[in-house]
Specification:
The structure is a homodimer. By secondary structure, the first copy, chain A, is an alpha+beta fold. Chain A has helices at 3-26, 53-66, 339-345, 380-395, and strands at residues 42-45, 80-85, 92-96, 99-103, 109-114, 118-120, 136-138, 142-148, 153-158, 165-169, 178-180, 193-199, 208-214, 229-233, 252-253, 266-273, 276-284, 292-300, 310-313, 316-318, 324-326, 328-336, 352-361, 369-379. Chains A, B: It comes from Cryptolaemus montrouzieri.
Chain lengths: 460, 460
């Protein structure tokens, strides 16, 4: 299966093409709907995204003769899922189906580790499996691959055994392997998982936690215990446990049990910026509609209870194409802008910028991308401003709190005394409306600050 | 001794004032001698540098009421020597006389470690001391404090026992302390030491080494074994040993035994940029003169034998003051330029920039700074270009190789076939002139590529 090579090269190509698009943008190409009191995102419609097998092959061949310096391939492996590069040493780590790789910066193989297949079944819990369960030889698909720089370890999580993670030595992935029996990531090949490390409770930035976003999966009685979004401890004796927990609160968010089977959330990308962690997701506009949109999820690093959990829709609209809306985010990257782009966005070259590629739904109202895509660029400064506007709007008694897939949406109630850092610190008695239990049976439903507004798109 | 507080606050003030000066520069203040084919360094004459005790006190008081959020002081300690901040966690580490500190990002004390005083004498080797030696209770002055991010360890080196280093856990400096008996840094309170970690042999960037520059000290028979510049291993079983050694070569440079007592080199700052490690130094213009100048020392990260060891003089000249020359570098920092400064320097905001503060000799021809100082800004791109020009000039058969304090200076000889990466890879048979033993008795003298030219100042 030589396709592994193509996948790997495609990653390189993607990096290159993103860079070239960005330089085009910084030369002044624009075209988007202008929003009120909002620097618009820059947009440029780019290449056809979904390559057929033939076109992928020819693209690879064309690139290899010109740009590729070195390649690494493993014909025996089905798919490379994730790739991370140690920023200190340049070492390359790859998470694949049933295998992990450690390569040198020149892509020479240093070590491999077999991670599957193993006997497993959806009915098995993370800790045990009775002999009556019919177990099958199951692939271990790599779902997350993250470097913990504060302890020089590689964290890899696979789909086997309800999605558990292991910790390895960065210098040699075969050394000191510790497997932790805690369900962290998605437990099949297709359900999305995003994981990244950033400051978090109890004591940021000294304590770093792993932020994880996971699509809910059916078929196992144990998946209801895996939060959709959580912050997980990286402390030696509490590895991957929810970083902070109390009886009904903690660093976790569940989609409520009534909504979770018909309200899939796909986690596409995650990143941290200036005191907050963000996830880019696709989900339905309302629990009652089937129209898919992209949303930014945000929690504050200081927040031990996810009181600051907030979402805003994020759109990518082509003004040049008569307001064509690219509604489904497909991939993203947070970096810095070049001088020209920074100047266009009204920021400095040291400020964070989100580059995100979107597609249209095809068929309409589905979560499947069409073969057209667009790149939109947002300054994190603008994103923070939009979150702030929404939160203030709700605190002033306007609109609905939204997010009824977590807990029933309530009307925002005017709150006279807003706490100073009200983006982060929202103790229950400062919430704009009184908590309500409603129809959800999820224990921590009432603690979220839900400030999503269907009218408050990031770009308009 | 409340001066400790002042020292610490002065560090903060210095950071702030550097930033404000840079913004002034980026607004277009310039004044310097223009060099041929060379983007000039920007220069601005700034504050009187040597504050008297009274003025320091008033400056501190003025600042504390406006800008200081939090302070940490220890009246029981004589001096804070070094401060490093973990870029991942924000933890603060301080190396002081006889003490190490670990503080939280909010400057709350987490841990302290006593490092001295202990019984020691110059006549003791790093490994042993006979009972006949008259040992004195001696302070342990912190000479280097470095974070090794690839293994999450803190490296601290003190003046005791010929200047040895210890390795500690970043999470708790009292945990897992390993002391290594190897003479690495200067062995008294005043002789300079600069240490930093960057990629190095045998396999950069996977292998990181500690680059160390040390002033030669008198009074001990063991100091001749400590190189002036060296790259030291960070591998567990070879900790602080010279990274690569052969019979006459290796990652080390000695000042020859005839010159070292009358040719002091002061190491002021060290940094890595794009494949090279640099030291900023003050030293004499010639071994035969007593005029002090500033020089940049450079070695290539790939170089297992310091064949690429090269120096260029670096000056800071005020055109506005009629060509006044600030000859002694006092402090420096490598960072990125803001958009305006980047544009002025002809670089991008992602390129490295060297900010360096210089003084004049006072009295003339001394290594003592006057009470006037100036800040000069250089792009690393310009610095690399100047090194390249000098090396090419010598390879073309022009000038002297210089650096006669290492080995006798020879006339550059035209070399027809320059190796492709001739900045780094200079095997002996490609050297512009045949090696000579001359008057120096230092075994590795003949292997340096000496391309220092008194006429090729960085700015002119």
């Amino acid at each position: 299966m030589q396709s592994v090579l193509c996948v790997f090269i495609l990653l390189c190509l993607f990096q290159n093409s993103l860079a070239s698009r960005i330089s085009m943008i910084s030369n002044g190409l624009k075209g988007c709907r202008l929003g009120a009191a909002m620097k618009p995102p820059l947009i440029i419609v780019v290449v056809v995204a979904v390559l057929t097998a033939t076109r992928l092959k020819s693209a690879t061949a064309a690139a290899s003769s010109r740009d590729i310096v070195k390649t690494y391939s493993d014909p025996s492996v089905q798919l490379f899922n994730h790739l991370v590069i140690d920023k200190n040493t340049g070492r390359v780590y790859i998470g694949a189906v049933n295998k992990l790789y450690q390569l040198s910066p020149d892509l020479d193989l240093v070590a491999t580790e077999k991670t599957g297949p193993e006997l497993d079944a959806d009915e098995c819990s993370v800790l045990e499996c009775t002999s009556t369960v019919n177990k099958q030889l199951t692939n271990n698909v790599n779902k997350a691959l993250v470097i913990d720089y504060t302890t020089s370890r590689l964290i890899s999580c696979g789909s086997l055994f309800q999605g558990i993670c292991s910790v390895r030595n960065l210098h040699n992935i075969s050394d000191g392997v510790v497997q932790v029996r805690e369900a962290v990531v998605a437990n099949n090949a297709t359900a999305s998982t995003v994981a990244f490390i950033a400051p978090g409770p109890p004591n940021p930035p000294v304590t770093q936690v792993m932020y994880v976003g996971v699509t809910f999966t059916l078929g196992s009685p144990y998946r209801s215990e895996v939060p959709a979004v959580s912050s997980r401890s990286l402390e030696k004796d509490r590895m991957f446990a929810i970083a902070q927990t109390a009886v009904t609160t903690g660093t976790r968010m569940f989609v409520n049990s009534l909504a979770r089977e018909r309200y899939p959330i796909t986690y596409v990308y995650g990143f941290a910026s200036e005191g907050f962690s963000y996830f880019l997701t696709t989900q339905m506009r309302h629990t009652t509609s089937s129209q898919f949109i992209s949303k930014l999820v945000r929690v504050c690093h200081d927040d031990e209870n996810y009181y600051s959990y907030t979402e805003i829709p994020i759109d990518c609209i082509s003004e040049a194409q008569g307001g064509r809306k690219y509604n489904l985010v497909q991939a993203a990257y947070v970096g810095k802008a070049g001088s020209d782009l920074a100047s266009d966005l009204g920021i400095t070259a040291q400020d964070d910028v989100l580059f995100a590629v979107f597609s249209e739904s095809d068929p309409a109202n589905s979560n499947k991308p069409s073969n057209l895509s667009a790149l939109c660029v947002y300054s994190l400064k603008a994103i923070r401003r939009k979150f702030m506007q929404n939160i203030k709007y709700c605190f002033s008694g306007n609109g609905q709190r939204g997010l009824d897939f977590i807990s029933p949406s309530l009307t925002c109630v005017s709150t006279v005394s807003q706490p100073v850092k009200f983006e982060c610190y929202l103790p229950p008695n400062n919430l704009p409306s009184a908590p309500a239990s409603g129809r959800s049976n999820n224990s921590n439903q009432k603690l979220h600050t839900c400030t999503s507004f269907s009218v408050s798109y990031l770009e308009a």
